[in-house]
Amino acid sequence: MGDPQPTIDQPVRLEIDPNGEMTGGSRRYDKLLGDLEGLYRDEDAYRALLAERGADALMYYVYDQRYQEGPGALIVGTSTLLPGTVGDEYAMTRGHLHAISDRAELYYCLSGHGVMLLDTIDGRSEAVELTPGAAVNVPGEWIHRSVNVGDEPFVTLFSYAADAGQDYGIIADAGGMRTRIVTDGDGWKQVPNPTHVGYARER
Amino acid sequence: MGDPQPTIDQPVRLEIDPNGEMTGGSRRYDKLLGDLEGLYRDEDAYRALLAERGADALMYYVYDQRYQEGPGALIVGTSTLLPGTVGDEYAMTRGHLHAISDRAELYYCLSGHGVMLLDTIDGRSEAVELTPGAAVNVPGEWIHRSVNVGDEPFVTLFSYAADAGQDYGIIADAGGMRTRIVTDGDGWKQVPNPTHVGYARER
Predict the structure, then answer these.
(1) From which residue to which does the signal peptide run (chains A, B) (predicted)?
(2) Is the interface score ipTM higher than 0.90?
(3) Which residue in A13, A72, A102 is closest to B134 by CB distance?
(4) pLDDT digits (tens, 9 = 90+) for B65-79
(5) What is the 8-class DSSP label of residue B133?
(6) I need a surface site. Which of A57, A164, B10, B159 has the fewest CB within 10 A?
């Protein structure tokens, strides 16, 4: 009698504020300063910030909406990355490669000023600047992270395949991404990361 | 020595205006009044509009960005649906079910006032109202079309899997969707469509 019919999800209206609040979604998660051990190059600056603000200081948060995890489903949400620096590095997310590495991800900037930092395992690096109304459709096979180079929260709307998953360890295992985004007067610049030892699949 | 490595696409920055213009994409296509034969219920009103405005009158247009069509790629773009009515029906897109029917699609409203009209083959119908900042993550298996119920262009940002494809014939073959969105004083209402004969897979 064939496979049972899968349940078809009910469409839900989402309300998305340029400040990153989203209603109609299913989940919010917070990333705190204490979760980001090892992310920034300047460990002394990280320890000093931890002493000053505490491990519970909010660094970024994500709202998302998930239906059942069918192969064709999309996860939609907002990411809000608070501004700041640790040493000379701008605030950033942990970053990831999708566990199914050919899965793309759309980021559309709702507010703030950020950079999408991108590496391929085989040696390419890019930095795409995002301001409100700009977007980047991150192709498959690109490790990517958001960096806030402005004074306000950097907020993006994102969507990606529900089966994509995230591999966060690939960056930590490599000593960080190939480049870092650091202060340059009032602006930002992309510099080589001397602690980067190559991604696992190229070692 | 194994499969050749696929080419990895280069990330491209997109600039998206709330009026629907998009730079950085690869394509624009226009849908003209003459292309929409059979879409509206009131054939006399359609013929009159055709006589008045001509077959080349622009009704809606789409910008999109496509990389290579890998299984994990996303197509990203904007849809701009011009306002108006044909008889008592508000301006609408042809609508589609994805050819791979479990593929979802995100629509995020950039400007204007619209309705996402949705049907499942097995009998469910929904109408999700969209104004700037609202979005709907259309789940797989939902036939969907945009309707402009406002006085200005209705503009959405969309993303969907590059392998999804579109089946437009499913609506035409069914005599239209299960409901129509018509004028109701200054507003809109959803009414049953008497010409709908059921979708092919349920007949």
Answers:
(1) none
(2) yes
(3) A13
(4) 998 888 899 999 999
(5) T
(6) B10
Task: Please state, in angstroms and rounded to a whole number, the distance separating the CA atoms of residues A17 and A43.
Answer: 35
Positions in chain A whose pLDDT score sits under 50? 1-3, 202-203
pLDDT digits (tens, 9 = 90+) for A118-152: 999 999 999 999 999 999 999 999 999 999 999 99
Mean pLDDT of chain B: 94
Total tally of structural domains belonging to chain B: 1
Alpha carbon distance B78, B76 (integer Å)? 7
**Residue B2 clears pLDDT 80, i.e. is over it:** no
**Does the residue B7 lie in any domain?**
no
- Does residue A3 lie in a domain region? no
In a domain, A111, yes or no: yes
Q: Which residues of A touch B5 (CB under 8 A)?
A: 122
Query: Residue B126: its chain A contacts at CB < 8 A?
Result: 10-11
Q: What is the pLDDT of residue B115?
A: 98
